[in-house]
Amino acid sequence: MSIHYDAIIIGSGQGGTPLSIAFAKAQHKTALIESSHVGGCCINEGCTPTKTMIASGRVAYLTRRGPQYGIYTGDQTDAAQNDIKVNMEVVRQRKRDIVDRFRSGSERRIREAGVDLIFGTASFNDEQTVHVRTMDGHEMSLTTDRVFICSGERPAIPKIDGFDVAAFPPGAILDSTSIQELGVVPSHLVVVGGGYIGLEFGQLFRRLGAPVTIIQRGAQLLPREDADVAEAMLGVLKEDGVRVLLNASPTAIRPAGDGDPAIAVAVSVGVSGQGGQSELRASHVLFAAGRVPNTEMLKLGAANIETTARGHIIADAQLRTSNHRVWALGDVKGGPAFTHISYDDFRLLRTNLLEKGNLTVGERLVPYVVYTDPQLGHVGLHEHEARKQYPGRRLQVASMPMSYVARALETDETRGLMKAIVDTESQRILGFTCLGIEGGEIMSLVEMAMIGGVQWTALRDAIWAHPSLAESLNNLWGFLK
Ligand SMILES: Cc1cc2nc3c(=O)[nH]c(=O)nc-3n(C[C@H](O)[C@H](O)[C@H](O)COP(=O)(O)OP(=O)(O)OC[C@H]3O[C@@H](n4cnc5c(N)ncnc54)[C@H](O)[C@@H]3O)c2cc1C
Ligand SMILES: NC(=O)c1ccc[n+]([C@@H]2O[C@H](COP(=O)([O-])OP(=O)(O)OC[C@H]3O[C@@H](n4cnc5c(N)ncnc54)[C@H](O)[C@@H]3O)[C@@H](O)[C@H]2O)c1
Fold it and tell me: In which domain, by residue range, is 116 found?
């Protein structure tokens, strides 16, 4: 016998959870199906745990730099950096506690709203029937008027000839989830991929004491950034002691085979344009080379839901799929993969379907923050994008080193730069980047100006409290070219 629901949501991520609550509160009979744990990637394996661990890395960094501020952990006559010890079990436990708290809070709110929370894996039987294999092995068949797919993505395993994870000691080959469960500091961590995940973990484990090498296929780190920003980020990581190989990819990853558990993996690296291979020997390898959508388990064909070649669900500007009863939100539909985008997708669906609105994803302003230290905050267009998008318009760029910011000097955190792209005629800000201390918060100030259509001259002329980081928005415009 099948149960009928007004709405079924697949995946309790950052879009799926609030959507299920909104439907239940609007008196729709609603089921939320989750195959793993409530909260999705962000709470369990993404934003929450990583930013919690990164906070430990920052404490390690500042403690080591203590003598520069006159603060010593031991003998003051020793000019060497403060000696620190890292207990990964404590770092990990702090992360686990915060994740547990966030997850249980989320689960409580789902149940209190009257959502039927079903732990199991969902797939389609036909256009209107969802099959669930529950965690305890039961089969359920649910019919429904509407389905919302928010099943997210998972780490991709790069294609490397002959690579077989089973050949390695358990825990030597890591992804962004398993690396968070390490109980020891790696004796050499090799990171494959110089994107968000590679940079955040690479710098974190360097700060926790591991030698780290990042292998990045492209000519720069963070391929979507302007080259000058990526170059500045490279400088930051190098200064922190992270080794970065650009234009490089692993050509073979195999067991090191010399019986030393501290060196379990041998990584052959090829650099494009250069013949030959070099070999890295590592205790651990982290794959941070992108993510793939969780769609193959869903049997989307049975419901006539179309996907891209990479498996992302194709959705229109109102998030509707090729099946008019089915919508897709969050990472699973491709495009910017951030928690705040998944949440904005929820907002759009709530407005359109429960409040008779007519929103589209249209021209949304996408901010993001890479939580390296200093942070890289960005909103709107990059310079290279703005020049491509507006070939006929006069654009100006202001780029100012963080060493011009009084507060950054006072706190001795002057690494990085801020950069704005403006339209000369309208004086509107088209894009802003801050690689700098609290770069995400500074970026958010500029985002607010962009939302309000505030011209750059208003930021230049505003009275900002001294000596705040915001005050730098007075001076930046002196660098406009
Ligand atoms: C290491 C890391 C750090 C990150 N840091 C940040 C950050 O700082 N800021 C930021 O904005 N973003 C960050 N992200 C990205 C962010 O986590 C994702 O963009 C966000 O979680 C996507 O949310 P979602 O709602 O699309 O899906 P998810 O949160 O991925 O949730 C999908 C859910 O669906 C479930 N599911 C999958 N298939 C099925 C099925 N067949 N049946 C039932 N359930 C299913 C999964 O178990 C999962 O719980 C990070 C990601 C990673 C990996
Ligand atoms: N702070 C944040 O907001 C945050 C943090 C982490 C992750 N995320 C989200 O998760 C997504 C996935 O992160 P990610 O870092 O895995 O992906 P990514 O796409 O950002 O970066 C992957 C990098 O790996 C490189 N690469 C791919 N294959 C390679 C290979 N074989 N050898 C060497 N390099 C290779 C690519 O050139 C790219 O630079 C991000 O795009 C982002 O949307 C966000």
Answer: 2-43+95-155+291-354
